[in-house]
Amino acid sequence: MNETNQPGAKDNKAGDAGDVGSAEFGNRINPRSPGDTLRPERVPPPPPRSQQARHPIVIIMNFAMTILVVGVLGAVGLFFFGKLRFEQSSHFGQPRTVSIERGKSLRDIAEELHERGLISSKWIFIAGVRAYGLQDDLKSGDYLIAPRSSMRDIMNAMVSGKAILYSVSVPEGLTSKQIVDRLNADPGLVGEITEIPEEGSLLPDTYRFSRGDSRQNIIDRMLRERDRVMTAIWTSRDKDLPIKTQAELVTLASIVEKETGMADERSRVAAVFINRLRSNMRLQSDPTVIYGVYGGSGLPSGTPIRRSDLDAVNDYNTYKINGLPKGPIANPGKASLAAVANPSRTKDLYFVADGTGGHAFAESYAEHRKNVARYRKWLAEQKAKGDVVPASAGPGDAVDDGDAPDAATDAAPVPPPKP
User: Fold this and answer.
1) Under a CB-based contact definition with an 8 Å cutoff, are residues 411 and 314 in contact?
2) For 353-357, what is the mean pLDDT?
3) How many domains does one find in the chain?
4) Which has the higher per-residue pLDDT, 18 or 156?
5) Cα 48 from chain centroid (whole Å)
6) In this structure, are 156 and 173 located in the same domain?
7) Same domain for 151 and 177?
8) Closest C-alpha among 249, 257, 250 to residue 171
9) pTM of the model
10) Same domain, 397 and 269
11) Adjacent-strand bridge partners of 360
């Protein structure tokens, strides 16, 4: 019996040995036949899904995270695309102009640029300007846009305010009312001037501005410039002048401005009036007569000075009053202000037109009468030829007015009083 069971026992031992071998070699299955060798091993199934991963909250969070990542990537891509378009050169090859009116919003400006073909997308322009935080810094005006300018270039131009500049010229010798009328007639300016400035408070000059600038702003600039120039001139004036205040200097400068338009005569004309003030002589200036009668509107075109004007009693008629008139009769320029502050050192007391656009000066009354006679002769010759000659006279020499055939002689000043 024992012998009979021994082979079985051996088999069991062999099986046990095989099991041990399988454990030792990673649970490898020992094939029992050649077919088993060719048959693929069975792959173990995946582990069962966690119940926690299938929770609704986890699913929602995963979905939200996916949307967030996709959104961020999309926003980054959109940002770089917009930035590229915002800084990309435009297609137009010629300079173009665009007018941006005062008070327009960013959207209105973008639409204007788009309609003019200066930008390819108004939305990208709006987004770009807002990204730089410059939506409140775009300035109105007329702009010359260079060829192939990008949206960013256009934005920078409007922020810098480097618009096309225009100019308004204000000649010397205009009254404040005439200056306001000139500014009101300029189509490049906007707004209203609330009140006419005081006579003599504005500095005539050429002022540059961009379209859409206000008329009041030009007036304010003229006021500031006059004060600046006046301060410098007053500081450097001749201290021996019979003028005590800046207001008196401006008043006399306005008379000089109206008496001559020749640059090389201003200081000599100023000397005549300074010498008259020192000699207690009346200034007898025709422009003061005109202002006293017609005010800031000036002498109507084609209207001569009449005997009734010379006889009018007011605070400006220097034929009737002693010293300076009540105030300026116009707005003098820098040259006339400087001429009064530092007049020529002459003894001249008279001047009269010489027929060439200038004046003949004289120290004595007798010499002056000769100059008047020569001017009258020349004037008669021009009238005989049919030429139109503008009236131009010096102190006491109002030209013929139709009421008095020889107003110059009648109104001529008497010699200065003896000391």
Assistant:
1) no
2) 86
3) 3
4) 156
5) 78
6) no
7) no
8) 257
9) 0.69
10) yes
11) 352
